[in-house]
Amino acid sequence: MGSKSSRSRRYAEEFKRDAVALVCSSGRTVTEVARELGISVEGLRNWV
């Protein structure tokens, strides 16, 4: 019962582009950026 929802969140295309750009230009890892943005590491990794 304490598990995450099985529904996936939908993010705007602009948010996805900005998140990917942040990974590519900042020199930080996908994990660091995902934690900062409050999104899943797996989701961000798929976008990249």
UniProtKB/TrEMBL annotation:
Entries under InterPro entries matching the protein: Homeodomain-like_sf, Transposase_8
N-terminal signal peptide: none
One Pfam assignment: HTH_Tnp_1
One example of a Gene Ontology biological process annotation: DNA transposition
Gene Ontology molecular function: DNA binding; transposase activity
Gene3D superfamilies, A to Z: Homeodomain-like
Domain of life assignment: Bacteria
Protein name per UniProt: Transposase
Organism: Streptomyces triticiradicis
